[in-house]
Design a protein that fits this description.
Blueprint: E1 2-3, E2 11-18, E3 27-34, E4 38-44, H1 65-83, E5 87-91, H2 92-96, H3 98-102, E6 108-112, E7 121-122, E8 137-138, E9 141-142, H4 144-151, E10 154-157, H5 160-165, H6 176-180, E11 186-188, H7 218-231, E12 239-247, H8 253-260, E13 268-276, H9 278-290, E14 295-299, H10 303-312, E15 315-318, H11 328-334, E16 338-342, H12 345-350, E17 364-366, H13 371-385, H14 388-400, H15 406-421, E18 446-449
Parallel strand pairs: 1-4, 5-6, 5-18, 6-10, 10-11, 12-13, 12-15, 13-14, 15-16, 16-17
Antiparallel strand pairs: 2-3, 3-4, 7-9, 8-9
Helix pairs in contact: 7-10, 8-9, 11-14
């Protein structure tokens, strides 16, 4: 089940109303087949269809996001009551209030992708959330994420290190006590990437294809040449650093701006693709105008360009302050571009420092989240790629790693089996009969709300 933001065509589409509380307004389900996703239910609630799911033209959250997504959550709960799935898997604050109505009726799992977004809104919503509403009360407001953490059977986050970080006062963003109270019901499962799309061997968006057997051959050379042409630069062999990122404080773009002043002395060039905070975008524009032979910036997101940047750059720079998982560092490594990152969250779980571990290293990791440590990691990466044999060895390890969803998917399926077959879990499901599993141990249905 996904909010119907508009503009999505489905094959074999059916439409039908869904009974929800009066305050949601009318809810309509569009059920059909999406050409990529497959079977899907799109949920239309009043004012759900927008040009951007969450943000207005100024980059601010839509003022009625609380109503939009709490209504969507009510629709999720109503659909679960009708279809009786074996497990309901909720995602983030946008679906979290569904846990209030689901509690005691169906095993429920919640994935938290980042604690930075909790959906805190007016306390008037507490009157609509039923007998479990008190779980969502939060310092005179309503906090969807805080309530769901107490009500679901398992909480998943998107890397093992982030699961450890979020139970600390420094990493828990106010929710560390509720999260630490979960004990082993809080689980970190590392995300994957779609390796059929992010694959330099078959990628149609890049100037030349290549693989792990030839990480620095003609295909990559063609990709590099295409990037230099795109930026209007002459390739004189200098290190090319790429950033593909949302421009937000979390991603450490201000650290990248600090490092830009040292590009001359490396020497190196930097190409940046991203959108977000106006101040960070203006900082990148300043460096682009001040050092046009060093910094190139595109404000926005262009997926084919992201592919080209991963395929043709030497280093991928991701100096995040916190990073629940991160996908871009995995995408970069799949293309043989060596990541320079901070030792936080999923970055710590996916990138092995090549100076500290010469035999297994896949990138360069700053132990500290500060200018000095990050600049040092960037310099170490720059020095390493100047030695062709070492650069190829590091790149090849990243390209040969399994970044797919195969292992994470198996972990999720095992977790579904566990919660669907469990009894007597504290503070959760007290349904009187066991769900029926097929003879092969598989679960008949999992309803996923995103």
């Amino acid at each position: 089940m996904v909010p119907d933001y508009g503009g999505v065509e489905l094959a074999r589409e059916e439409r039908f109303p869904l009974a929800t509380p009066d305050w949601t307004g009318p809810v309509t389900i569009r059920r059909g087949v999406h050409p990529v996703v497959g079977d899907i239910d799109l949920v239309s609630t009043p004012n759900m269809a927008r040009p951007h799911p969450y943000l207005d033209e100024h980059g601010d959250g839509w003022p009625d996001n609380d109503h939009r997504f709490i209504s969507f959550s009510a629709a999720v709960a109503a659909m679960a009551a009708e279809t009786e799935p074996d497990v309901v898997h909720l995602n983030d604050w946008h679906t979290s209030t569904a846990a209030s109505w689901l509690h005691g009726n169906v095993p429920t799992v919640l994935t938290i992708h980042t604690l930075g977004y909790q959906g805190t809104c007016s306390n008037h919503w507490l009157q609509h959330l039923g007998p479990q509403a008190f779980r969502f009360a939060w310092w005179g407001a309503t906090n969807p994420l805080a309530g769901a953490i107490q009500l679901v059977d398992r909480v998943i986050t998107v890397s093992p290190t982030y699961a450890r970080e979020m139970v600390t006062p420094e990493g828990g963003m106010g929710l560390h006590e509720r999260l630490s109270g979960l004990g082993d019901r809080l689980i970190g499962i590392l995300n994957g990437i779609d390796t059929s799309i992010w694959n330099p061997v078959t990628d149609p968006h890049i100037a030349g294809n290549f693989g792990a057997d030839d990480p620095d051959g003609d295909g990559r050379a063609a990709c590099r040449a295409a990037l230099f042409q795109e930026a209007g630069w002459i390739d004189d062999g200098q290190t090319l650093i790429a950033i593909v990122s949302r421009l937000v404080d979390q991603k450490g773009i201000d650290f990248a701006l600090s490092c830009a002043r040292f590009l001359d002395t490396m020497p190196a060039r930097m190409m940046v693709l991203g959108s977000g905070a106006i101040g960070l975008a203006n900082g990148l524009r300043y460096w682009e105008s001040h050092s046009p032979d060093r910094v190139w910036f595109m404000d926005g997101y262009d997926e084919p360009l992201a592919h080209r940047l991963f395929a043709g750059s030497d280093l991928f720079f991701m100096p995040s302050r916190f990073e629940p998982c991160g996908l871009a560092q995995m995408q970069a490594m799949a293309y043989g571009t060596i990541p320079v990152v901070t030792k936080v969250g999923g970055l710590a779980d996916t990138v092995i420092d090549a100076d500290r571990n010469r035999s297994d290293g896949t990138g360069f990791v700053s132990e500290s989240v500060d200018d000095a440590g990050i600049l040092d990691a960037l310099h170490r990466g720059h020095r390493a790629i100047r030695v062709s044999r070492r650069r190829n060895a590091i790149a090849r390890r990243g390209m040969k790693a399994d970044w797919s969803w195969d292992a994470p998917a198996r972990e999720h399926i095992d977790l579904y089996r566990e919660v669907a077959g469990a009894t007597g879990r504290p503070g959760s499901w007290d349904r009187p009969t066991e769900p029926q599993l097929r003879s092969d141990g598989a679960i008949d249905e999992v309803a996923s709300a995103d």
